[in-house]
Amino acid sequence: MKAHRPGILLILILLVFPQFSETVYSPVLPGVSAVFSVASNMAQLTMSLYFAGFAVGVLCWGYLADRIGRRKSMIAALVIYGISALAAVLAQSFWGFLIARVALAFGASAGSVVTQTVIRDCYQGRELARFFSLVGVALSLSPTLGPVLGGILAESNGLQGVLFALASSAVMLLIWTLIKLPETQKVQADNDHNRLSLGALAGKMICDRRIVCSVLLVSGMNILLFGYYTLGPFVIAEMGFSQRVFGVSGLLMALGTAIGALLNRSLIQQVSTEKLIRWGCTLALAGSLLQGLISSIYFESPQIHLILFLLPMVLIVTGFGLTIPNVLGTALVDYKAQLGTAGALLGFSYYLIIMAGLGALSVAYQNKLWYMPVSFAVISGVLVLIAKIRSSNA
To answer: Does residue 284 belong to any structural domain of this protein?
Structure first.
């Protein structure tokens, strides 16, 4: 039975909602320190632990997407997200707030794994590759819009304003999903016969070098992206600028994402996905090294220093826009019998690594301008090597 396709706009918004909801929160991180009287690295951990809940949620919702269907899984996840956002608003202690954040991430994760499963239900072959290039545009642009809105909300209404905005958006998405999201799971007579147990499927994927490389590439690129949203507010504050300035820096990030998205869509028919992935990782490395160089130079004008320091992020985010859609669009071509569960295991793996990577950046955080670019250069250098290994096994 051919799956009925949901509207493209709904699919894209469900897919980018987890990233948007996290980046709209990032400008208020210094406010978390003030509201709950905790150190800055503790506030940063609310970002890294978010991915712990996200990783568990990806595993859960991907498995349920195969068992109870894509539509029911998404509806249940959005209900949990909305309740958790309200709990975060009402939290009286930092630990209560942290628990609500983890639960919120658990619900939000369905937007990643279930939506990707819906896409793979509805599109195949080159059509799937073209759709994932559109996904790349959305995934790249969504994190750039979040800090702009988050910066405005943080300065006008503080932490509560951001959390109320997240709760309201969850309600609107739930209503839209109830009305417009059909069930896309394809019914196959031999579905149960082809289905491996969770443990057997995990074992198969662990031994698949292409899957391992894909996990590391997605993880590394997201650590670069969310590393900026985790460390950036504190770096910019240290340079003497406000939360609103950090939010506006999202517009600069949008330039890079637009470039990456346009390059990907124009090149995907002429250039192999493996080459595009290598180019993306190389751009990220170049941007990190350039940012590191600028951090070591003294500038009399703080404004010029800030602009020059942030400009290399355009290269890093352009690399993100080239790499992520091409990795995600080709990672599970050999796992069509269990797309939901395989996608869950894939996402669970890379979100655990993202959580660990962001946690390491926060724990080792140095209040020095060089810390972020040096960390990014190490990560992107490793990604270049992984991209080459993946290409050799394509």
So the answer is: yes
Q: Which two tokens stand for residue 210?
A: 């292409």
User: Residue 203: inside a domain, yes or no?
Assistant: yes
3: tokens are 């799956």
CA trace torsion 201, 278, 246, 376 (10° rounding): 80
CB count within 10 Å of CB 15 equals 21
Split into its structural domains, the chain has a count of: 1
pTM above 0.85, yes or no: no
Q: Is the dihedral of CA 36, 42, 43, 48 positive or negative?
A: negative
Report the mean per-residue pLDDT for the chain. Answer: 84
H helices present in 123-208, as ranges: 125-180, 191-194, 198-206
| Alpha carbons 293 and 249: distance in angstroms, whole number | 20
Contacts of 198 (CB under 8 A, 6+ apart): 63, 341, 345
Q: 385: which 2 tokens? A: 């090597």
Query: Which CATH number goes with the domain that contains 92?
Result: 1.20.1250.20
Residue 211 lies in domain: 8-185+197-392
CA torsion 66-53-220-129 (nearest 10°) is 30
For helices 125-180 and 29-36, the axis angle rounded to 10 degrees is: 40
> Is residue 139 within 8 Å of 264, Cβ to Cβ?
no
Identify the pLDDT of residue 140.
Answer: 63
Place 2 in a pLDDT band, splitting at 50, 70 and 90: very low
Q: What gap in Å lies between CA 137 and CA 144, rounded to an integer?
A: 11
**Using 50, 70 and 90 to split pLDDT, how confident is the model at 194?**
low
Task: Report which of 74, 71, 77, 78 is spatially closest to residue 183, judged by C-alpha positions.
Answer: 71
- Does 192 reside within a domain? no
What is the chain's Cα-based Rg?
20
CA distance 335 to 164: 39
CA pair distance 82, 100, nearest whole angstrom: 11
Tell me whether residue 101 is in a domain. Answer: yes
Helix (H, G, I), strand (E, B) or coil at 124: coil
192, exposed or middle or buried, with CB in 10 Å at 0-12, 13-18, 19+? exposed
Per-residue model confidence (pLDDT) at position 141: 67
